[in-house]
Amino acid sequence: xxxxxxxxxxNPIEQTASTSVMQxxxxxxxxxxxxxxxxxxxxxxxxxxxxxxxxxEEQRKIREKLEEIGSQCAQLREETELIFxxxxxxxxxxxxxxxxxKARQGRDFGKAASxxxxxxxxxxxxxxxxxxISS
Length: 135
Fold this sequence. Notes:
Layout (H helix, E strand, L loop, with lengths): L3 H7 L1 H94 L3 H26 L1
């Protein structure tokens, strides 16, 4: 008679049962591996989500800063324009003053008086606009 181990190896029922056990063990091993991979993926997804939220928050802050800088640029443009307007008005006043002085030196008092009236008118309007602009 053959040894017991040899007889079992040739017994189809025992062979099927051992194959089934091996397949079940393989399946369990594979399921554990899949579960481990799934857990790792879930952790990775959670980290990525957190990073994306952080990125969106930073983008929002940058957008707000850019909007603030844009409004400051617009305000600076307006202030620069007002300064140029005031400069132009001051130049007109100076030109009139120098023309009055020149007319008086040339003893043309009629022209000097006319220029003085113009100077008063321009100066009063200049002050009015300067108050309106600064308000």
